[in-house]
Design goal:
Layout lengths: L2 H13 L1 H56 L1 E5 L9 H12 L11 E9 L11 E5 L3 E6 L3
Parallel strand pairs: 2-3
Antiparallel strand pairs: 1-4, 2-4
């Protein structure tokens, strides 16, 4: 059978309602199977997305907890006037231990970093032993060790 004869026979067969119904059933079954497979894949991907969302929420919560823990180790003391040739660590320890009466007393090795925040409108000397930041108020930022 050549191509022309095959096309004519196929056209005639497609006019038969029983043939069309059979072909429609075959095509519909194939589409149905593909649809079931796609729905299963979407369900699986949605489960993975939900799991990842929970993981992101957990990580954000953990990050917030860690940031909060870090903030608890920071202390800002405002309103201290700077004195010439002062020992910043000793001055900080004096304010914390004697004025604030922190128990147990903080030691110099407990302080990770000291920073001086200065009012940009006032004239301050730069301190090589401190990190300098500009802010509206004069204050001493003390970061305590996490240990």
């Amino acid at each position: 059978m050549d191509n022309a004869a095959f096309a004519k026979a196929l056209s005639a067969a497609l006019l038969d309602p029983q043939v069309r119904s059979s072909i429609g059933g075959i095509v519909a079954e194939s589409i149905k199977q593909e649809l079931v497979a796609l729905r299963a894949e979407v369900k699986q991907k949605n489960a993975i997305i939900d799991q990842l969302k929970r993981r992101v929420d957990d990580l954000e919560s953990t990050n917030d907890d860690l940031e909060q823990y870090q903030r608890r180790n920071s202390l800002r003391i405002s309103g201290l006037l700077e004195e010439d040739n002062e020992d910043t660590f000793q001055r900080s320890l004096c304010v914390i231990n004697e004025t604030m009466k922190v128990e147990p007393p903080i030691q110099e090795q407990d302080i990770d970093r000291l920073s001086l925040f200065i009012d940009s409108k006032l004239d301050f000397k730069l301190r090589p032993d401190l990190d300098i930041f500009n802010e509206d108020i004069e204050s001493l930022f003390i970061e305590l060790s996490a240990s």
